[in-house]
């Protein structure tokens, strides 16, 4: 095989989805530990602390203990190259999270063994389902009091309408948790609570009837294990690679991230079963990852990672081709050529200049605002990737300034945050006040803190009387004109100049929809 198909074959680009507190951070750390990307557990947090210390705007993040920014980590394990795309866990930042999921080929769903499926798990799962993203389930915290494994499997199946199949089976739980039987590789993996960051390879067994099991485990636990597995095998279908890859079946692993337990099995399964980069749909055709020419899209923009520079990093997901440093890429939205000399690869330990990158990889392209969420870059071909959405904000507020002289600066700040995807900004056609829209209430606080820290502007957010925003589309210019003429005071433009209808309440929105059936009041707008 030539290099490109081999590199594509070896790539695994995935995200971890979880309800806050289920153990996503802990699992991330352990995955990186196995990948040799960090030397000791705790490094993810330690690195985070350093970064936080450097930038003021993350004060909110620090005080609230939530992670606002998503990051990407690239590491190798078992002859594979993994790109782990971290998703912010707090529900206030779901829009960012949703977009992150457009950049991955599979996901790991972490569930707390005592709690089962929680609200955020369900929401994130629904986004994965929309795109048929295959999911491996990791039931975490088995070292604590846990719910019955049958009960948990049943909940995943019923609640998410997803076929489940056991990848491993737990032996006991809480203080009696002894380990798992790896049903795929036929290994008994015992938990050693003393071994810190070293994980045992497990003991090869010749099926569940192997007498080794009787020597290594108490008689009652072996009996229960054999009985449980016989039952679960009867109840659940066997693992089927195709069904998993189509997103209809999830293999379930049990473990304890904090004890490193089950992490190796999870990684080996990702290496063996998770899909390599998928063909991607563009407006004109479907692009195969093995195609020689580079194409890809921006799914996230992060500004001011270094507050001393007004730089922005566009997170670019490569969909096809072999990226080489210095390659000239065409920016579809502006038609301009961009020589990409200083892109970075996010190795878990550090950022490194990207000399080469392959489909599935995510590179960071520094720029001064040219690149926006949803932008496509190609080596010349006219095509645009679709499907990176912008969501109608659920909360709208007006921005007020202490010093009205700073209006121009404020506008720049707001446009910049809108381009970054942190919020949306609407300029009403009538009146001078800007309206800002977000998905969760905490985002207003984060924004005010960032406007202060990055632009030295004191701004306040206050109620504006609107409760929803909808992008307006209409194929009939006469109807559109009539609508615009009679609703001028409720119209605004977003940062790209697209028309938006601001409604005071659900009734008013409903009324407009009834009165103008030919107009589409869109809740999402595809970025282009
Ligand atoms: P996140 O919010 O999903 O990122 O969750 P964290 O990784 O920060 O974990 C939340 C809490 O659960 C922390 O106090 C962790 O130490 C703890 N935790 C994570 N994994 C385990 C585990 O396997 N067993 C136990 N007992 N606690 C865990």
From TrEMBL:
All residue ranges annotated as the Tr-type G domain in the record: 9-278
Top-rank taxon, per record: Bacteria
GO MF term (any one): GTPase activity
Positions with a binding annotation for GTP: 86-90, 140-143
Gene3D superfamilies to which the protein is assigned, alphabetical: P-loop containing nucleotide triphosphate hydrolases, Peptide chain release factor 3, domain III, Translation factors
SUPFAM superfamilies documented for this protein: EF-G C-terminal domain-like (SSF54980), P-loop containing nucleoside triphosphate hydrolases (SSF52540), Translation proteins (SSF50447)
One GO process term, biological-process aspect: regulation of translational termination
InterPro entries per record: EF-G-like_DII, EFG_III/V, G_TR_CS, P-loop_NTPase, PrfC, RF3_C, RF3_dom_3_sf, RF3_GTP-bd
Keyword Nucleotide-binding: yes
Key words, A-Z: Cytoplasm, GTP-binding, Nucleotide-binding, Protein biosynthesis
Primary role: Increases the formation of ribosomal termination complexes and stimulates activities of RF-1 and RF-2. It binds guanine nucleotides and has strong preference for UGA stop codons. It may interact directly with the ribosome. The stimulation of RF-1 and RF-2 is significantly reduced by GTP and GDP, but not by GMP.
Protein name per Swiss-Prot or TrEMBL: Peptide chain release factor 3
């Amino acid at each position: 095989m030539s290099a490109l198909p081999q590199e594509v074959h070896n790539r695994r680009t995935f995200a971890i989805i979880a309800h806050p507190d289920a153990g996503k951070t802990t699992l991330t750390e352990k995955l990186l530990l196995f990948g040799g990307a960090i030397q000791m557990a705790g490094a993810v947090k330690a690195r985070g602390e350093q970064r936080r210390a450097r930038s003021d705007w993350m004060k909110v993040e620090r005080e609230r203990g939530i992670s606002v920014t998503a990051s990407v980590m690239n590491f190798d394990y078992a002859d594979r190259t993994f790109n782990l795309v971290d998703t912010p866990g707090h529900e206030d930042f779901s829009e960012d999270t949703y977009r992150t999921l457009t950049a991955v080929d599979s996901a790991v769903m972490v569930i707390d063994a005592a709690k089962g499926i929680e609200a955020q798990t369900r929401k994130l799962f629904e986004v994965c389902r929309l795109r048929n993203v295959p999911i491996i389930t990791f039931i975490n915290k088995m070292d604590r009091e846990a719910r019955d494994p049958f009960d948990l499997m049943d909940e995943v199946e019923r609640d998410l309408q997803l076929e489940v199949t056991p990848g491993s089976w737990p032996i006991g739980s809480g203080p009696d948790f002894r380990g798992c039987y790896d049903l795929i590789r036929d290994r008994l993996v015992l938990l050693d609570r003393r071994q810190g960051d070293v994980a045992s390879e497990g003991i090869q067994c010749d099926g569940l009837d192997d007498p080794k099991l009787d020597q290594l485990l108490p008689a009652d636990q072996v009996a229960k294990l054999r009985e449980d597995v016989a039952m679960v095998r009867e109840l659940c279908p066997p693992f089927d690679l195709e069904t998993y890859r189509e997103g209809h079946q999830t293999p379930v692993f049990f473990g304890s991230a904090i004890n490193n337990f089950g992490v190796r099995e999870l990684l080996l399964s990702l290496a063996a079963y998770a899909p390599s980069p998928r063909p991607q749909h563009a407006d004109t055709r479907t692009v195969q990852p093995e195609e020689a020419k580079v194409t890809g899209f921006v799914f996230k923009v992060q500004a001011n990672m270094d507050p001393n520079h007004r730089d922005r990093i566009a997170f670019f997901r490569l969909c096809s081709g072999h990226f080489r440093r210095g390659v000239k890429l065409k920016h579809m939205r502006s038609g301009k050529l961009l020589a990409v000399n200083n892109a970075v690869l996010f190795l878990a330990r550090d950022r490194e200049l990207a000399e080469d990158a392959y489909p599935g990889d995510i590179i960071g392209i520094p720029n001064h605002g040219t690149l926006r969420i949803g932008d496509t870059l190609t080596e010349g071909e006219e095509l645009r990737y679709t499907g990176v959405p912008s969501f109608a904000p659920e909360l709208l507020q007006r921005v007020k300034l202490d010093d009205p002289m700073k209006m121009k600066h404020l506008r720049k700040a707001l446009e910049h945050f809108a381009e970054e995807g942190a919020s949306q900004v609407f300029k009403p056609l009538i009146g001078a006040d800007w309206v800002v829209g977000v998905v969760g209430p905490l985002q207003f606080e984060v924004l005010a803190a960032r406007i202060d820290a990055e632009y030295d502007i004191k701004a306040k957010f206050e109620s504006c009387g609107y409760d929803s925003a909808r992008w307006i589309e209409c194929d009939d210019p006469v109807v559109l004109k009539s609508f615009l003429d009679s609703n001028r005071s409720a119209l605004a433009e977003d940062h790209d100049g697209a028309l938006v209808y601001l409604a005071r309440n659900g009734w008013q929105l409903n009324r407009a929809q009834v009165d103008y059936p030919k107009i589409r009041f869109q809740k999402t707008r595809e970025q282009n």
